[in-house]
Specification:
The chain is an alpha/beta fold. The longest helix has 16 residues, at 190-205. The chain is elongated, with a radius of gyration of 24 Å. Strands 2-1-3-4-5-13 form a six-stranded parallel β-sheet, with helices on both faces. The chain is 43% helix and 18% strand.
Length: 340
């Protein structure tokens, strides 16, 4: 059945039918429901090219991927794919060099000007992020995965990074630890700043001073985790606990501890962020790893849903979601009195 035939069956115009199926807000909910029900009943599936001609959309969401961050990014894309699989919407991924802000801005401009995407997802935002201002100025619908301090109105989805690290640090303090190191994300991005604040606030509330020698920033990789953890554990006195910014970082921490004949959970307590990976299970690590739980796949799924809401006409100022974080305690943490 072609669009004209389907529209005639409903006594509606082809434009109204296309807009109803695409979720346009100007179509009444009763009409949208009638069209959707009829499409299911009659087995009508719109020709995607015809829909794009009517709606002016190209059927793609753009996202930029920094080289070196493929692990978390793959999970985020998988979540997006789960939501967009039945929507005839593609994901356009453009790789960029790490820390190349100029190239990044140019690529965002090209994506908008080429009209290859209907919306863009911005990852790892910075305070007063120029990308947000640019997309707002160009009139491109976009969602920020994270938050920025810019005055430009924008839609965002974020996790409570500050609360997650504060809770992890407080848990270690409750266990009697006083020298707690942290391996954070790279400097300059908002989530790293929020995690820094959570860490510092937990120390301040216990009357403990902040020691810059116990904090390091870098990419979330095994090698970075190993290098920073090794430098911490070689200090005298060494830290008795460590907060790792990711599961991949924690792998490096475990390796550094073993290289110094230290036992995780006995000689050094460890809590890591992000424990929801299909190929890296915190329960199966030896010892099992205490974590603050956050699913990149779930964030990708929800981000895709929120972008669809933006394209359906929802205001960016109505899309602000902050997800709480759960702390999961396992064998990698213990009281300081038990440490050798």
């Amino acid at each position: 059945m072609k669009l004209k035939e389907f529209a005639k069956h409903l006594d509606l115009s082809p434009t109204t039918v296309s807009r109803a199926l695409s979720g346009y807000p100007e179509v009444r909910e009763s009409t949208r429901k009638r069209v959707a029900d009829a499409a299911i009943r009659l087995g009508y599936r719109p020709n995607i090219n015809a829909v794009r001609l009517v709606t002016g959309r190209v059927g793609a969401i753009g996202i930029l991927m920094e080289r070196g961050r493929e692990v978390n990014f793959a999970e985020f894309l998988s979540g997006m794919g789960e939501r967009l699989g039945g929507e005839d919407i593609d994901i356009l991924v453009s790789p960029i060099a790490e820390h190349d802000a100029k190239d990044e801005m140019q690529l965002y401009s090209r994506l908008v000007e080429s009209r290859r995407v209907d919306a863009i997802i911005v990852n790892a935002p910075r305070p007063n992020d120029e990308r947000i201002a640019l997309l707002h100025r160009l009139g491109m619908p976009f969602l920020v995965h994270g938050r920025s301090e810019t005055d430009v109105p924008y839609a965002w989805l974020d996790i409570d990074n500050e609360g997650a690290i504060k809770r992890a640090t407080a848990q270690l303090l409750d266990l009697g630890h006083r020298r707690i190191a942290m391996i954070n994300g790279r400097p300059g991005v908002t989530f790293s700043m929020h995690r820094d604040k959570g860490y510092r606030d937990a120390l301040v509330e216990r009357g403990l001073p902040f020691d810059p020698r116990l904090v390091a920033h870098g990419s979330f990789t095994d090698e970075v985790g190993f290098r920073f953890a090794r430098s911490f554990l070689e200090q005298s006195p060494r830290p008795t606990a460590l907060v790792a910014g990711s599961m991949m970082t924690a792998l490096g921490v475990y390796r550094a501890a073993r290289s110094l004949n230290l036992i995780v959970g006995k000689d050094i307590s460890v809590i890591a962020h992000d424990d929801v990976f299909p190929y890296l299970n915190a329960d199966n690590m030896a010892p099992s790893l205490s974590t603050t739980r956050s699913s990149m796949r779930a964030a990708g799924t929800r981000s895709a849903e929120l972008v669809l809401q933006l394209l359906a006409g929802k205001s960016p100022t109505e899309i602000h979601e902050l997800w709480p974080i759960e702390l999961i305690l396992r064998e990698s943490t213990g009281p300081v009195s038990a440490l050798s």
